[in-house]
Amino acid sequence: MGHFLKVFLITFFITILLVMVGFYSYLKVFNPLDDIGPIDGIDIEYYGDDNTGDSTATPFENAVKNSNRINVLVVGLEHVRTDTIMVASYDRKNKIANIISIPRDTLYERPGYKSNGLKINAIYQDENIDGLIDAVQKILNIRIDKYVTVDYNAVIEGIDVLGGVEVDVPFHMKYTDPSDNPPLIIDIPKGRRLLDGKTSLKFLRFRKGDLGYANYPNGDIGRIEAQQIFVKEAVKKLLSLKLPNFINSVYPYVKTNFSTTQLLALASELIGFSTENLKADVLPGTGKYIGDLSFYVPENEEIVKLIYTMYGLIEEESTQGASE
Q1: From CA 324, how far away is CA 315, in angstroms rounded?
Q2: What is the pLDDT of residue 228?
Q3: How far is CA 174 from CA 24, 159, 209, 220, in A?
């Protein structure tokens, strides 16, 4: 099975967040706007501040209606493949963000499709972004308001503009996959190193070592921890960067149905957001073989708990352990 791109989901979210904040800051300085109001084109009633509720609605429906959240589908692309799929949900009033990562092998049954066509990462190529949005809405039972797609080249270009990112490489990362297109060769020695864009991408992609070389001792948890450290270091460097340079490098690889006005309005609300208020979860589910293929089967009961927690209907402590 090919070793495809797995850039850590928070990297995509932070990239989008910084691009939006960058646009806002850049235009406020170089093309000042008198007023940036609420986000046009998003149902005001759906995101209203009316907390009176509806006596005929369920508690969840009232929680959603009275929420200040905007739900954005964020997709990391490797050419036409959706290699990373996640929902970034941002509470605009309380400046709290949730990310739900949806594994690419997630089972999603579609009439007329069999085998690999039942995996969620096959939808984009067949039905484009609209089909993927529909599938994610049905799996999570929440409305997707907007979408953003990011090509992995955004990571390469963005890191190069930063002048690289310095991280502690925990062990000699050595992995080779000649079947990848182009062939993937990762060879990053252990130690404190300044990684350029291409090497950073390899650092983020690394999952396992060649025979005789080291792996993360605690598997994907160790990989996620290393990637979190990388993201924090990248954000620190960005704080001292001239934002127009970063924007010019990254934005060509970003596609979205946000209008410029909506981006600016959301960016203004993101100012003051702290990554300490960012919670990341993986879609609850279990791995299972169906025939000869491996699938990730969603656990609907646990998904409901996750979404209810996000909207404040269940206390955080009741779902501890669901997050990875």
Answers
A1: 18
A2: 66
A3: 41, 21, 5, 16
**What is the DSSP secondary-structure string of 84-126?**
EEEEEEEETTTTEEEEEEE-TTBB---TT--GGGGBGGGHHHH
| Nearest residue to 91 via CA among 70, 65, 66 | 70
DSSP conformational letter for 61? H
pLDDT digits (tens, 9 = 90+) for 115-159: 888 999 899 999 999 999 999 999 999 999 999 887 778 778 888
Half-sphere exposure (Cβ direction) of 17: Cα atoms closer than 13 Å: 27
Answer yes or no: are the C-beta atoms of 281 and 323 closer than 8 Å.
Answer: yes
pLDDT (tens digit per residue) in 159-187: 898 899 999 999 999 999 887 777 889 99
Give residue 297's region: left, alpha or beta (phi > 0; psi -120 to 50).
beta
- b/e burial code for range 29-55 (CB count within 10 A of at least 16 → b): eeeeeeebeebeeeeeeebeeeeeeee
Q: Where are the alpha helices (DSSP H) in 196-254?
A: 197-205, 220-239, 243-250
How do the residues of the chain divide into helix, strand and coil, expressed in percent and rounded to 5?
40, 25, 35
Angle formed by the axes of helices 220-239 and 9-30, nearest 10°: 10
